[in-house]
Amino acid sequence: MQIDPGRFASRPQPHPGDELMSRGGAKRRRLAVFLSAAVGMLAVASWAYSPGLPAEMLIARYGNAASQFIDVEGAHAHVRVQGDPRGVPVVLLHGANGSLHVWEGWTRELGDKARLISVDLPGHGLTGAWPRGEYTVKAYAHFVEALAGRLKLDRFVLVGHSLGGGIAWYFAATHPGRVSQLILVDSAGYPPDVEVRWPTRLARLPVVGEIGIYFKPELWVRQTLLHAYADRSMVTERRVKRSAELQRFPGNREATLERARTQALLDPTPLKRLDVPTLILWGGKDPWVPVRDAFRFQHDIAGARLKIFDNLGHDPMKKIPRPPLRWCRSF
Fold first, then answer.
1. What pTM does this model have?
2. CA separation for the pair 94, 99 (Å, rounded)
3. How far apart are alpha carbons 129 and 60 in whole angstroms?
4. Could you tell me which of 132, 205, 201, 192 has the C-alpha nearest to residue 163?
5. Which residue, 163, 238, 248, is CA-closest to 200?
6. Whose CA is closest to 322, among 127, 112, 107?
7. DSSP string spanning 127-141?
8. d(CA 277, CA 274)
9. What pLDDT, in 10s, does the model give residues 185-237?
10. Is 307 helix (H, G, I), strand (E, B) or coil?
11. Which of 75, 147, 246, 263 is exposed most, by the fewest CB atoms within 10 A?
């Protein structure tokens, strides 16, 4: 039997400094990874951060000759009063993160038949923050009452889209006799069957919400509009830019955060007590407020009429600016 002499040879022992060098190398690698990640995060944060824009600049850019600013319960409200001053008054309420610009088609089309009053709700558009700091449907209904008082409106047609629709029917239910006709466009009203959307979930997280509102709004504005319109050609650069820049009007992002954290689900029970001629307009491809809610409104509001636009999404009034007037009793 042959014996390998190397088998019993003494093996080299590791030098004590080798282990220290190995540990030091691992620490340096971890530090390098950490620093790279930190630099990357700072770069992303620097790119994503978008400060507020000057109010004067945005007013000059997105106001027009009809724009006026009036004090409504402490809010510096952006209001446009257009059309026939002797016509039936029509108050137009936009949805969450919207502005009175969504009604520009209606104000053009109906100007010869009505006195059209569009407004940027507090925390939106060129109105900005509300010193009251409250952005619930109940608070907004109080704002509508105060606005009507400032404009000396006794009875008026009330039109609301999405969140604005929820405000509109809540106001009609709690102020009987003030609304001559109600028009609801893809209105809020019933508890959703789907999970709360991710921007709202993030906004409700401590710290994350406070930081997140200062990130560039263009990306999520574009995605929001792509979901809102069934026709993607409606998502123009002009619309994206306007919506994103109005989000950066002083106080609007903080108001959006407060609204996301405090807005409770609406109780649809008062709908069954409404005694107001009501027209319901709905986009058949609305991804956010399902078309079945349109039928629920029609069922719950006595005598309500319903018109569904099969190929439109959440914002049908932008694609078809003239409502079906043959169903509108006030015109």
1. 0.83
2. 6
3. 18
4. 192
5. 163
6. 107
7. T---TT---SHHHHH
8. 9
9. 999 999 886 666 656 655 555 645 556 666 778 888 898 899 888 898 999 99
10. strand
11. 263
Q: Can you tell me the distance from the alpha carbon of 118 to that of 167, in angstroms, rounded to the nearest whole number?
A: 14
Do 69 and 78 meet the contact criterion of CB atoms below 8 Å apart?
A: yes
Q: Is 309 helix (H, G, I), strand (E, B) or coil?
A: strand
Query: Which strand (E) or helix (H) includes residue 281?
Result: strand 278-283
Distance CA(166)–CA(192), nearest Å, equals 13
| Cα separations in angstroms, 67 against 44, 59, 61 | 38, 9, 12
Q: Which two tokens stand for residue 227?
A: 């979901």
**For residue range 230-264, what is the model confidence (pLDDT) as tens digits?**
898 999 999 999 999 999 999 999 999 889 888 88
Question: Distance between CA 133 and CA 155 in Å, rounded?
Answer: 28
Tokens 């089309």 appear where?
109
Structure tokens at 37: 């990640």
Q: How many residues does this entry show for the chain?
A: 331
Give domain 55-195+265-327's CATH number out of 2.60.40.1890, 3.40.50.1820, 3.40.50.450, 3.40.50.2300. Answer: 3.40.50.1820
Sequence-ordered list of residues with C-beta below 8 angstroms from that of 297, at least 6 positions apart, any chain: 184, 187, 189, 271, 278, 280, 304, 306
Which string of DSSP letters, residue by residue, matches 108-164?
HHHTTTEEEEEE--TTSTTT---TT---SHHHHHHHHHHHHHHTT-SSEEEEEETHH
The domain locations on the chain are: 55-195+265-327
Q: Are 73 and 142 in contact (CB under 8 A)?
A: yes
Torsion angles phi and psi, residue 89, rounded to 5? -70, 135
